[in-house]
Amino acid sequence: MCIRCWLYCRVDFAGGVHAVKATARPAVTTTTAGAGNWLVSLIEDVLALIAAILSILVPILIVLIIGFMLLAFVWWRNGASDRPRLNLINYPRR
Known about the structure:
Blueprint: H1 3-32, H2 37-79
C-alpha cells in the first residue's frame, strides 16, 4: 500500500475525530458548566493516540500474518508428498 493511501486514511480519520469533538464539546460544556471539559479532552487525546498507533501497527501486522500464511501454505504444499498418508478407509479396527 502506498504512503499516500495511509496518509489519506489518516486525514479522513482525523477529520472524523475533529467533527465528533466539535459536536460533543458544546454539549459537554453546557451539561457540566465547563467542569467536564478537561476529562473529555483527556479521553479524546488518549483515543486519538491509540488510533494513531493502531493505524501504523495494523497494516504491518496484516502483512506479517499474510506472509506467515503464505509460508505455511508453501511448506504444506512442498511437504505434502513427503508425509505418510493416513488411510482411513482401510484403517485396522481393534
